[in-house]
Amino acid sequence: MSAKAAIRAEAENIFAAFQAAGAAPVEADILLPAETLLDLYGEDIRARAYVTSDPLRGEMMLRPDFTVPVVQAHMAGGAEPARYTYMGEVFRRQEHFGPRASEYMQVGFEVFDRTEPEAADAEVFALIAGLLAPLELRAETGDIGILTAAVQGLSTTPKRKAALLRHIWRPARFRAMLDRFSGRAPLPEARLRLLDRLAGTDAGALIEAAGPAIGLREPADVAARVAALIEDARTAPIDAAETAVLDDLLSLEATADKALLCLEVLAARMPAIAPSVARFARRLDALDARGVSVGTLAFAASHGQSSLEYYDGFVFSFHADDPALPPVSTGGRYDALTAVLGQGRSIPAVGGVIRPGLVARLKGLS
């Protein structure tokens, strides 16, 4: 059997297993409107997607994943609750990951159900864990919702909270921004010099002194940015006790049962995360009910910070021993995405994908 045939066979087996679990098979276009993905992820998506131009449809992208088109199809008229499965190629640029494949097969399982979200989390995780059990992979879990709740609970300006939330999926930027907002890191010299100049004049004078305008920004845009810089410089640092909670949260790594105890202690220090911690506790009960050992399941509060931006709750991944290999499976909750794509409607949703090419490779079939 050729490598491609082995991968296809694995994909068909996983696809059949997801259908046996109650999922309806769906198809998704390979070429997707770039505008939708750019609106969701910003220009950063260009660094990892293949972009092309169509004379009639405008800018298009080769499908970087299935979740967005599946959510769009469901929100356009899907019944509730619903379970979907899909199979096909996705396309990702891999400049930063060496020899990893830029085109590979995915098979996915998505659940749209507003009755018991934590039970749905457990359903998806347990199903994928069972299918991958013969490979003896390492499972890792996290919860972006707890980290998001901690940021939203900070005693600082809405603009600073929004900036932190915007970079929550970029760990290095997030840490650097937290250090600056908390006063632990000084402002860059260039920012200090600019603020000194702004203190002695107004934005209009600076714009006039700069000469002819170059670029797309209007003077009003520049003036608004100047006002934002001055406002931020005058904002008091984030409280040290709140920053310490975020530090402790970001460094939390333990088995899921022990992580719950730590999170309950942190919730006493920052009540804003208490509802998310309660959801975490219910999820552990649901996982335990499905036979998942929460006493050995790895949890890291920062897990998922480098994943796709639409995850906003439970996140998970399964890894082989070889650190050079990408995750064999990834997934998580993306409730907010359904609201963005639902044109006023939303529904709790969670899903996960398996890479059959890696499954075949680990079985020695490709």
TrEMBL record:
<feature type="binding site">
    <location>
        <begin position="310"/>
        <end position="311"/>
    </location>
    <ligand>
        <name>L-histidine</name>
    </ligand>
</feature>
<dbReference type="InterPro" id="IPR045864">
    <property type="entry name" value="aa-tRNA-synth_II/BPL/LPL"/>
</dbReference>
<feature type="binding site">
    <location>
        <begin position="65"/>
        <end position="67"/>
    </location>
    <ligand>
        <name>L-histidine</name>
    </ligand>
</feature>
<dbReference type="GO" id="GO:0006427">
    <property type="term" value="P:histidyl-tRNA aminoacylation"/>
</dbReference>
<comment type="subunit">
    <text>Homodimer.</text>
</comment>
<feature type="binding site">
    <location>
        <position position="110"/>
    </location>
    <ligand>
        <name>L-histidine</name>
    </ligand>
</feature>
<dbReference type="GO" id="GO:0004821">
    <property type="term" value="F:histidine-tRNA ligase activity"/>
</dbReference>
<feature type="binding site">
    <location>
        <position position="92"/>
    </location>
    <ligand>
        <name>L-histidine</name>
    </ligand>
</feature>
<feature type="domain" description="Aminoacyl-transfer RNA synthetases class-II family profile">
    <location>
        <begin position="1"/>
        <end position="288"/>
    </location>
</feature>
<protein>
    <recommendedName>
        <fullName>Histidine--tRNA ligase</fullName>
    </recommendedName>
</protein>
<dbReference type="GO" id="GO:0016757">
    <property type="term" value="F:glycosyltransferase activity"/>
</dbReference>
<keyword id="KW-0328">Glycosyltransferase</keyword>
<dbReference type="Pfam" id="PF13393">
    <property type="entry name" value="tRNA-synt_His"/>
</dbReference>
<dbReference type="GO" id="GO:0005737">
    <property type="term" value="C:cytoplasm"/>
</dbReference>
<dbReference type="InterPro" id="IPR006195">
    <property type="entry name" value="aa-tRNA-synth_II"/>
</dbReference>
<feature type="binding site">
    <location>
        <position position="106"/>
    </location>
    <ligand>
        <name>L-histidine</name>
    </ligand>
</feature>
<dbReference type="InterPro" id="IPR041715">
    <property type="entry name" value="HisRS-like_core"/>
</dbReference>
<dbReference type="InterPro" id="IPR004516">
    <property type="entry name" value="HisRS/HisZ"/>
</dbReference>
<keyword id="KW-0808">Transferase</keyword>
